[in-house]
Amino acid sequence: MELGKGISLADLRVELHQKYGDIIRIAPNELHFSRPTVYNEIYNVQNKWDKDSEFYRAFDAAESFFTQTNYENSKHRRSLISNLFSKSAILELQHLVRAHLDRFCDALQEQTVAGKSSNLYLGFQCFSADTIGNFLFSASFNQLSFPGFHGDIIEGVDIAMPTVTYAKFSGVIAWILRNFPHWLLKIVSPRLKGLVIFKDALIVQTKAILRNPKMLDDAPHRIIYSELLNPEANKGRPTPTALHLRHEALVLFAAGSHTVGTTLMIGFYHLLHNPEVKQKLVEEVRLAWPVLDQPPPYEELEKLPFLTAVIKETLRLAVPSPASLPRVVPPSGAMISGAKIPGGTIVGQSALFVSFSEDIFDQPCEFLPERWLQPGSKSLENWLVVFSKGPRSCLGINLAYCELYMCFAHLFRRFDIRNDPAKPADLTWSEHFLPLFEGQHLHAYCEPQYE
Length: 451
Ligand code: HEM
Fold this sequence. Notes:
The protein has helices at about 1-5, 10-20, 40, 55, 70-80, 85-90, 95-115, 120-135, 150-170, 170-180, 180-190, 195-210, 225-230, 240-270, 275-290, 300, 305-320, 350-355, 395-415, and strands spanning about 25, 30-35, 50, 120, 325-330, 335, 340, 345-350, 415-420, 430, 435, 445-450.
């Protein structure tokens, strides 16, 4: 109903809570809670509650561990992939992030030299898509090479995004979308072409790898398929099929690209609109990075206190995955928000209700990195919940932080960045599991620094 009226789910939840109180029914068997303390009651290490199957069927990736509703069934595959995203693996492969940043910076410089401002929303999406592609498959999708950062895959993701919401509300629509022939999709919606070609390429790639797993030996670093097909780790279990591999690849690409791109865009938006905060960040980065062609490694950047505060504040405000993440209360029932909730009820809370809670964050709508540097602000970290919590929390958190630290530091060290006044950004978004930004994108001029 709300889709028909064009109202974003995120706004609708706020409206309903204002009208009906702390606990609202958002579907016949689904509750949403507004008190921010509920987040830690639902999502925590003890609660291995199932994900809601109707919600997660909306993703066209039924064989991935992400859409696997039962924790026990998802655990094995998650643990295989987690090797690639451990902190030590990310430190070892940080040069991949750096390589894509170099390409990104070259493209920004070219656009500035041509007298054009850059679309930073698309630029960050291209950067994160190329980076995650490199981590997962040791291949680049070259989204950064598209003129004006109009990458065909990332634009296809934005166009396809509302289908997740439609599929969530109707099993029939979910089925049609899953089974729609790719050749027809390219004709009906030409702007989806890049995404369709990407999905078709995954079909070919996964079949070829299963036919000849030895080709994995040629990859310059470990990739998802080497982990998923590891014979030692899979002992006593069936080997993953081409469909398993493809669905894991799709989910990891989707989870690792849009989220990071959105976070970067929101952070840059706030820094460009808060010149004093931006100046403080630039000074800190310059001090840690005095010689332009000798960038410090990620290990050094993550020690910078103001940069760290900027990243925390950016994540808090960005909430790149704003949906309520529905879980099923176990048969024994549970106490949530002071109420006894019967087993089988679907419950959830959007992280927006924590990030923007006045009870937790003073002036929650303001971009105030300093809040993370006050005495006692360590306790605030409990409320930085955008990666979710518990056994189904974000698997890519180490890679996400690495990309954020390196991107903020590189761009603000290598460029003097200014808003394009002719193109004021409109950050209005609607919720389709991910936020869809349909207004004017953030544009900026990036003047290269030569020392
Ligand atoms: C700022 C960046 C990111 C944010 C805020 C974020 C946030 C989240 C959230 C909230 C979840 C829980 C989703 C749910 O319960 O349905 C999640 C899960 C996940 N994320 Fe991220 N994410 C980010 C980046 C990444 C990256 C770079 C990757 C790398 C591939 C990644 C991979 C995953 C995976 C695989 C899951 C599913 C975990 C499971 O179901 O057990 N994420 N993420």
